[in-house]
Design a protein that fits this description.
This protein is an all-alpha fold. It has one helix at 2-38. It contains 1 helix and no strands. Helix content is 90%, strand content 0%.
């Protein structure tokens, strides 16, 4: 049971790390698209 709880905590950490990473990628893409759209060089 303890092993299962530790595994769940590890998976939760990986999930939230992936979520934060995806949010950063989306934010960078949004900024790059905005620069291209509005012609700011």
């Amino acid at each position: 049971m303890v092993i299962a709880l530790v595994g769940i905590r590890i998976l939760e950490g990986m999930f939230f790390a992936g979520l934060v990473g995806s949010a950063v990628v989306v934010l960078i893409s949004f900024i790059e698209d905005g620069k291209e759209l509005f012609g700011e060089d």
